[in-house]
Amino acid sequence: MAGPAAGESGLVPVVHASDLVRRLHPRPATSVSPLASALALAVLACALVAPAEAGHQWYATLLTIDPESLRKQFDKAERPLPIDVRPAEAFQRGRLPGARSLPLAALRERVDEIPRQGLIVLYGAGRTPDVNGAYQFLRGRGYANVFVLEDGIAGWQARGYPLEP
Predict the structure, then answer these.
(1) Rounded to an integer, what distance in angstroms lies between the CA atom of residue 123 and that of residue 154?
(2) Which of 70, 73, 112, 142 has its CA 20 to 30 A from that of 43?
(3) Structure confidence at residue 48 (pLDDT)
């Protein structure tokens, strides 16, 4: 788990894609007592209910992908779909390969344009709250296939990766 990015509130846990793979394919479990299982379940239930009871908004864990991992995904048969949440003018100046422009201001009206299958990668200019807001909006509507590009288009460019004009 990574810590909060600069400028982020720190309220949303961040999980990197490689951590997610380790979670999906864990090491074989050792035997756990029924009491320990029940206790863990009770703690989890309290943790999930406590924010709602306290009047806090629910936030999905922020799933991220680094530029290197995303670049490798472009070479696979099922290419990811980058979604650029920057204003249309910024999109016209340069974008990730195969990206669609979906400015944050239009997200609510155009949400049905985002497929529910395949890898969807949201990005902005850099580490911006706009991308986190778009991510939370989509996760709240049941999109489980969404990731955020770490460091946005700035991180992509810093590594010398190509942009489309």
Answers:
(1) 10
(2) 142
(3) 52
